[in-house]
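Per reviewer request, we include the raw input and output of the structure prediction for the construct analysed in the revised manuscript.
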Amino acid sequence: MQRVVTASVDKTARVWNADGSGAPVVLRGHEDKVESAVFSADGQRVVTASGDRTARVWPISARTLQQSLRAATTDCLSPEMRRTYLDESDEDARKGYESCERSYGRTPFYPEVDPP
């Protein structure tokens, strides 16, 4: 079954069945709005990032917090290597992207500036 995850200003993330059936799984625990949420590569966990400066890992089946990372602002968050970054501004996003790429031993690339 396909699922969709949403982030909300009510400090939660919700995992919905894509076909609209059933009630969503509500992930509670952040102290500020949830700004982003992504599935892990295996689809069994959700990683959320919040204005409370934490990133959290939630196993969907357990509906409870697995791990909390403090002071998360511009760090790389890429459970599926899709280049999703936690950021607060365009400048933070750029710095976060560059830091993440370098942490994997790669050179940052800007297609609009550095065409192949």
